[in-house]
Structures are given as C-alpha cells and as structure tokens.
Amino acid sequence: MSNRKVYHVTQNPNGTWKWKAQGGQRASVVTNTKAEAVSKTTGMAKNQGNSQVIIHKTDGKFQEERTYGNDPYPPGG
C-alpha cells in the first residue's frame, strides 16, 4: 500500500474554502476563494512529492483529482 499523502479541498458552511489532510482533525489552510485554496494545496503537494489532491465542488461532490510524485497510473502520451 502506498504512503501517499491525500489532501481534500472543500467548502466550509460559511463560504470559505479549506484544505485538509485526509484523516486530519483541522484544516491546514482556510481561504476566501476556491482558486486560492487549490493553488496553495497543489503547490504544497508538488513540493512534498508523493501526494494527491482531491478537489470537491461546492456541494461536496468529487470534481477533480491531481496526483504528484509516483503516479500509479500515468496516462500514455
């Protein structure tokens, strides 16, 4: 099993956006916009290496997944 760090970008009930490590108790960062939360999360994930960012829509449903580092399924060229 992979020890990939997984982070979720979701919206708070008050309209702000957060990113939180999967299984974490508290958000690592809270921002006013989704774009800012995604930017900060992906930047951190790229620097960390073996990580994954899961971005959610405003309703909490899955929107997009981004993996960095050792991608288990890289697309063909």
Description of the structure:
This protein is of the alpha+beta class and 77 residues long. It has one domain (5-68). It is built from 1 helix and 5 strands. It has a 5-stranded mixed sheet, with helices on one face.
Task: Quickly describe the structure.
With 77 residues, this protein is α+β, with helices and mostly antiparallel strands. 19% of the residues lie in helices and 36% in strands.
Termini separation: 27 Å
Profile the largest sheet: 5 strands, mixed
- What is the total tally of β strands? 5
- Mean pLDDT equals 89
Low-confidence stretches: none
How would you describe the shape?
Answer: globular
Give the neighbour order of strands across the main sheet: 3-2-1-4-5
Structural classification: alpha+beta
Helix-strand sequence: EEEHEE
User: How many structural domains can be distinguished in the coordinates?
Assistant: 1
Helix content: 10-25%
If you compute it from the alpha carbons, what radius of gyration comes out, rounded to the nearest whole angstrom?
13 Å
Number of helices: 1
Question: Which SSEs are present, and which pair or pack?
Answer:
Layout: E1 5-11, E2 17-21, E3 29-31, H1 34-48, E4 51-56, E5 62-68
Parallel strand pairs: 1-4
Antiparallel strand pairs: 1-2, 2-3, 4-5
